[in-house]
User: Which sequence fits this backbone?
């Protein structure tokens, strides 16, 4: 059975660089965000096992706010990769971690790859991977891909993640109490927490899908939960 | 202390403020959220010519915003107290 790893993360956080190093490919890497506008597939072997890796277009969220973001969202939700690697820029952690908060809501094994740790170090910032792992509940590796730093740890994390995914799925996590409450109403869905988060955001795709999916009585109940309590902005 | 709410476009360069609300459609809100503009976030104006896009510093990054989007971001300016 083929094993698929997807690279997701905000634009210009090092997905394509990591992809190239892993696969030995020479996909063009630009020093500007938004270079990858379609997904690319490659392969690499680890301990005799062939792994497929997908380089997804950079995306700020799983909200499908642009065509490239839609590619990423549809891929992650529909193709169900065995493991998602979320890249964040080590020198821009606060801004780029948003994607992790989204992906954490899906019951899929996740690795957080903190890239550009050399630049972060230059700014006097140290990435404490243990602490990040403890707080986020996912495997964390620090990488400086071009120098080859952290690649062994990365392979190890992939191995760990895939082993875990075959035993028991990672619990999805939401940082929003209302999303957790609403998620309980949507427990027949594949991604209850993520879907409830999107309902709270007012995501029109999800609103339309779910209102068509549920019988009107049930939908009214769901609507009550999120409309009554949400002061969105 | 009285807190006055302004639109982001009313701030001058070097003014710092806290985002209190984003009054826009859900699509715009979602896009702004994902790029780091969320409630309670500190934001500093880098450039604002009074028309055209404005440049702000938010969560470690400079971001240019269209004026129409920036208008929808409501902020409470932070008073800079001397000697503090």
Assistant:
């Amino acid at each position: 059975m083929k094993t698929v790893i997807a690279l997701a993360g905000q634009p210009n956080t090092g997905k394509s660089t990591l992809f190239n190093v892993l696969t030995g490919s020479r996909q063009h890497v630009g020093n500007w965000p938004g270079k990858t506008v379609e997904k690319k597939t490659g392969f690499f072997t680890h301990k005799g096992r062939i792994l497929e890796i997908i380089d997804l277009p950079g995306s700020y969220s799983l909200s499908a706010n642009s065509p490239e973001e839609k590619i990423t969202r549809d891929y992650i939700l529909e193709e169900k990769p065995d493991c998602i690697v979320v890249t964040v820029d080590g020198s821009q952690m606060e801004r780029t971690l948003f994607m992790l908060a989204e992906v954490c809501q899906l019951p899929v094994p996740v690795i957080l790859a903190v890239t550009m740790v050399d630049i972060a170090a230059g700014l006097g910032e140290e990435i404490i991977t243990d602490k990040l792992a403890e707080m986020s509940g996912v495997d964390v590796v620090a990488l400086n891909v071009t120098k080859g730093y952290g690649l062994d740890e990365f392979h190890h994390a992939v191995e760990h993640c895939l082993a875990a995914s075959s035993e028991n799925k990672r619990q999805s996590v939401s940082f929003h109490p209302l999303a957790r409450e609403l998620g309980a109403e949507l427990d027949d869905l594949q991604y209850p927490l993520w879907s409830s988060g999107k309902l709270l955001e007012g995501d029109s795709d999800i609103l339309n899908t779910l209102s068509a999916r549920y019988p009107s009585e049930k939908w009214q109940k769901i609507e009550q939960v999120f409309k009554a309590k949400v002061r969105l902005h | 202390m009285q807190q006055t709410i302004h639109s982001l476009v009313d701030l001058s360069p070097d003014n710092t403020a806290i985002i209190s609300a984003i009054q826009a459609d859900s699509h715009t809100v979602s896009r702004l959220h994902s790029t780091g503009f969320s409630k309670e976030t500190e934001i500093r104006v880098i450039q604002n010519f009074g028309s055209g896009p404005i440049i702000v510093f938010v969560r470690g990054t400079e971001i240019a915003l269209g004026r129409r989007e920036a208008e929808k971001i409501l902020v409470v300016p932070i008073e800079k107290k001397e000697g503090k």
